[in-house]
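protien #1 (seq + structre)
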Amino acid sequence: MAEIFFTSDTHSYVFPTDYTSKGRKDMGYIAMSSAFSKDAIIVDGGDVLQGSPLVRCEMQGGMRPFTAAEAFNRAGLSVYVPGNHDFDFGYDVLRSFLSELKADKIAANVIDERGELGIKPYVLKEASDGLRILFVGVVTDYVNIWESAEKLSGLRVVDSVKAARLALEEGRRLSPDFTVCVYHGGFGEEEGEIRENRGSELAALGFDILLTAHQHAIIEPKHIGSALALQVGSKAQHAAHITLHRDGSVDASLVDADASRPVPESMLGIPTEAEEKVQASLSEPIGRIDGVLEDRSKLESAIHGSSLADFFNDVQLAFSGADVSALSLFNDPVSLGPVVTLGGLLAAYPFANTLLRLRIDGGMLREAMERSAGYFDIEDGKAIISDRFIIPKEEHYNYDFYRGVSYSFDIRRPLGRRVVRLEHNGIDLIRHPETKLTIVLNSYRATGTGGYGVYRKAEVLERYGQDVQDLLIECFEKWGTVSVPERTDFLLIM
C-alpha cells in the first residue's frame, strides 16, 4: 500500500488565517500538513506565487526564501507542478522559487530554453512499500494567453495533452505500478486552438489518477473513463488522500484542514517575519471613502443595489475600458469605509479573481441577466430570494450586479422573460439585440459558471493576469480617497 497527499492552489496561505478575521481558521498549509501520513508521497499542483497578503508582501519586499517553499520542504513535498500564476513574475522569480524547493519539479509542456529551472516532464517515485508510481505534470495551456512575451522569456508552454501523452508513453517504459497526471487545469467545455481546462482529454489518455487544480473547485473523487479524478479547492483548506493497493485498486477521499490539530513538529520554527509584517498591516488604513460602500443584507442589496458592487464594477470598467461590467458579491454581506484597511478590503473582496474582456451583443447580455433575474421569487407580494440560489447551498455569489447599462427586472413575469428594460448609451438593447458591446467580468463567470453559459459563446478580447484584490489595493494606494459612486439605474418590479 502507498499513500499520496495532494494539495493545490495554496496561493501561499501557509498559516491558519484568512487575513479577514481574527482567530485560527481551518486552512493554511501548516494546518493541512497535520493530516499527512508518515512516508506518504506529498504532491502540490501549483499556484503559490500570487493570491495572498503574505506572498504579496514577500514579492514587494524581495523577501526570500518564500515562506511557502519553507513549509513545503518541512512537510516533505516530493512533487511540484507549477501553476499559471507561478509564471506571473517572469523567469527569474520562478527560478528563485523553484530552486528553494527540494521537491522534483515536473511540467511536461514547459520547455525551459535557459535550462535553469530543473523542470522535468515526469518523475518515477518508489513508495515505502516498493510500489512504483509515475507522475506526469502539465500546466494549463492558457499560460500563453495570460502571460506576456516578456514574462515567458526563456520559456515555451506547449500543448498540454500532447505533452502529457508523450510523457506517459516514455514513463511507461519504466514499468510503473500506477500512473498519475498532476494537471494545473480543470474541466470545461471549450473550443479553440488553445483551451484552458482540458481535464477530460487528459483523463482519456489512460492515466490511473488525474489530480486537477486551477478552478478552486471541490470535485469529489470520481471516475472519468479509467481515471480517478478529483480537485481540492484552494488555500490549503482541503487535500486529497489517495491510497494505492498492490492489487491495482485505488481509494481516494478529501481531507479537511483542522487548525485544532497539533502542529507537526517539522513545522515548528517556520520563519514568520513576513507573516508578522502582514498581520500588523491588516489594521492599517490604506485609503478612505467619503461615505460607506454598502452591501446590506443580500436581499436588500439585490433589490435596491449596492454601492460596494457599483464601486467594484467601476474599478473593473476603468481598468479594462469595457462598455459594461458584471460582478457578484459574496455570501456574507460586508460594507467598506469610511476608513479602508487592508483587512477590511480583503473581507469585502475575499477572492483573488482575474478579469476578462469579452465581445457580446445585447441579446447575449439579456440572456445572462435573465439568470440574475431568477434570483427572486414573490411571496405575499414581496420579493424573496429564490430557492434556486440557496438550495442545496447558498449561492448569493451567482447573482450579478451590472454597470454601464440601465435595466429593470419584472419578477412577476416567467423565468427567462423578466428583463423588461435594458439600455446602453441610449440604445434599447431589447429592441436592438444585435448591438455589439464589450463586457468585463471575472474568469470564473466567463467560463459560464453559475448558470451563465451564454458567456461561453463570447469572443475573448483580452485576459488580464492582475488579480482584482491587487487592483483594488492599488486603487486606494493611488487615489487615497474615493467617492461613493452614483447608484446604478436599476429597478425591480414586483
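ok now protien #2
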Amino acid sequence: MEPRDPRTSRFIRTAMASEMLDAHTEHDLAIAWRDKRDEAALHRLITAYARLAISVATRFRRYGLPLDDLIQQGNLGLMRAAEKYDPENGARFSTYAAWWIRASMQEYVMRNWSVVRTATNAAQKKLFFHLRKTLVKLQDGEIRHEALSKSIARELDVPEEQVEIMLGRMSGQDLSLNTPQSDGEEGRDWLDTIEDSTIPTETRVLEDMETQRRKKLLYSAVLALPERERRIISERHLNDSPRTLAEIGVDLGISKERVRQLEERAMSRITSSVREAAQLAATG
C-alpha cells in the first residue's frame, strides 16, 4: 500500500464526516446552482457527495494506481456531474453523480494502466474491468485455453474473439506508441493507426440512465398485469430459458392458442402502459 498524502487523509476524514442530504435539499441546491450559479450551493452539494468518489476509488485500487489520483479523478467526475445535472429529470443527484464518478475513473484507468490503449470498444472495456474476477471464478488449473476463452465469453456475454484479443493484450508487453511500425515505413508510428472510437462520457452516462429508466417502466408495466398474463410474459420473455406456448399451456390448463392470445393482450397492455408513463414524464 502506497503512503497516503496527509492532505488526502484530511480530505477523506472531512468527506466522511460531511452531511447527508435528503432529496428535497439536494434538489434545492441543484436548482440554486443551475439557475443562479450559487457557488455556496455547489460547494455544499459536492462536499456532501465527496464520499462517493472515495468509495468508488477504493474499488479501483486493484489496478495498482495511487489512491490519491483516483480520488482526484473521482472529484473531477463529481464536478462534471454537478455541471450537467438536470434537477427536473427525476433522478437523484447521488445516482447521476455515481455514474459520472465511475466513468471518470474508468477512463483514467484505461489511460494509465498500460501505455497501450488496451480497450477500444464496449466489449473489450467490459472484459478489461471484469476479466480478472471471471478468470478466478472459472480457472481451476485444468481448463484448456480454448475452453477457458469460451467460458469467459459465455460468462460475460461478449464475442469469443474479443476474449482472445484481450487475453493477448493483457499478457503482452507494453510497446511505445511512438515505435515505428516497421523499418520500411519511415515516419509512421503505431500511434498513427489508433482510431478513437470512445463514446463521450456524457453520452454514455445519459444512455445508461435512459436504459435504466426504460427498464423501470417496463417492469412496472409487467407487475401491473393480471397474474396469469404476468406469468406468461415472465416465462416467455424474462427467463434466461424462455418456455414454449405449449409448455405454459400445460401448466395453466389452457390451449396453446389461448396462451398466445393472452400473451398478445399482455404485450399490448405493456406497450400502452409504458407509452403513457413516458408521456407523463415528458410533460412533467
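The radius of gyration is 25 Å.
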